[in-house]
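Pilot study result, target chain (97 residues):
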Amino acid sequence: MTDDAANKPPRERRNRVLKGASIITGVNNSEISVTVRNQNSGGAELRVPADARVPERFLLYIPVDGIGYRSVVRWRRNDRVGVQFEGTEPKPSWHYG
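Predicted structure:
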């Protein structure tokens, strides 16, 4: 084990969930509908449409939480994307959900 690995806190386990959500991009407030597969306070795994162009940074709005999570992509595999949360924002005022 490296010194870096020994000094890192254990990763928080992500709870399995099944929530509808929207990736909101800065381009004309466009949205991509996604499913949150698992989530913890630090991030989430998303299932995205195969043809979706997911930017590196975006706002992930989860209506049942009533929160927008500022997110950064950490990994991508087929139709799955892992994101890290960098903070929260209130529900976008123009969003219908």
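One observation from the pilot: Residues 1-5 have pLDDT under 50 and may be disordered. A full batch analysis is planned for the follow-on phase.
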